[in-house]
């Protein structure tokens, strides 16, 4: 049975952790779904598997193309699609149009937008009113890399308070969940206790209602990964070895037999 945003909110009340990972194509999405991942994010972090330096260049068309492939591989997990940089910040109309395409064309169940500043709260309020489930994202927001870098956020009293208030405003705007990225664990705990919707942490310590990582980091496909990522297997080495073995066998006429 396909999971819903309402179920994930219930899991928070029941103390059940939410398992989330990113996916960018049919094969990866299918493996994640069959392994029981609850929430699959078509994150703009797929920039790394497309060879971009940051998440900024990804277009809505690229996101939708990949989201459609993910959709075809998933039966159970909730699919959330990131709206890429400058496809929702311009106006409420632009955000409704972009989010609408993610739901109508790609079959996503929700979209994720970065930021909890007043104009974004207004935009998200309108999306939710229009019937579009929204996931928030505060702390380190990689689409603002040229302003804030990729450093941990919420280290000072002022920025801690700002992030907490953004999370509260996002809940009031109607988001079903919020990603907390690269903030101190005690701040993530404070936000998690304050909100009735689930927090999904990445580099935010163990006290969130769920965790998300970038799958290419988890499986060792990324060239580099952030300090908080855990690499569970090294696919770069595995693939290199397989390709080298194949190359040797072809050159030595051992394959095919
Ligand atoms: O794009 C992404 O992978 C994300 C996660 C890090 C939350 O936004
Ligand atoms: Na993202």
From TrEMBL:
Its cofactor is Mg(2+). It holds the Pfam family Pantoate_transf. Binds 1 Mg(2+) ion per subunit. 3-methyl-2-oxobutanoate binds at residues 44-45, 82, 112. Mg(2+) binds at residues 44, 82, 114. One of its GO terms (biological process) is pantothenate biosynthetic process. Pathway: Cofactor biosynthesis; (R)-pantothenate biosynthesis; (R)-pantoate from 3-methyl-2-oxobutanoate: step 1/2. Belongs to the PanB family. This is 3-methyl-2-oxobutanoate hydroxymethyltransferase. It comes from Chlorogloeopsis fritschii PCC 6912.
């Amino acid at each position: 049975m396909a999971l819903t945003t309402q179920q994930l909110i219930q899991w928070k009340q029941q103390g059940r952790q939410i398992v989330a990972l990113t996916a960018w194509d049919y094969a990866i999405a299918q493996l994640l779904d069959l392994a029981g991942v609850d929430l699959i994010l078509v994150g703009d972090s797929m920039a790394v598997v497309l060879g971009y330096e940051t998440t900024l260049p990804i277009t809505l068309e690229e996101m939708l193309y990949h989201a459609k492939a993910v959709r075809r591989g998933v039966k159970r997990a909730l699919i959330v699609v990131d709206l890429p940089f400058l496809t929702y910040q311009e106006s409420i109309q632009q955000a409704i149009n972009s989010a609408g395409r993610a739901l109508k064309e790609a079959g996503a169940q929700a979209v994720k937008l970065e930021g909890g500043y007043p104009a974004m709260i207004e935009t998200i309020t309108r999306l939710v009113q229009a019937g579009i489930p929204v996931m928030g994202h505060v702390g380190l927001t990689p689409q603002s890399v040229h302003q804030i870098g990729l450093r941990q956020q919420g280290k000072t009293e002022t920025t801690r308070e700002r992030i907490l208030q953004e999370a509260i405003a996002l809940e009031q705007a109607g988001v079903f969940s919020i990603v907390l990225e690269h903030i101190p664990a005690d701040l993530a705990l404070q936000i998690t206790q304050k909100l009735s919707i689930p927090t999904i942490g990445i580099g935010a310590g163990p006290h969130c209602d769920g965790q998300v990582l970038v799958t290419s980091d988890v499986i060792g496909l990324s060239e580099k990964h952030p300090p908080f990522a855990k690499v569970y297997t090294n696919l770069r080495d595995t693939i290199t070895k397989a390709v080298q073995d194949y190359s040797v066998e072809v050159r030595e006429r051992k394959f095919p037999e």
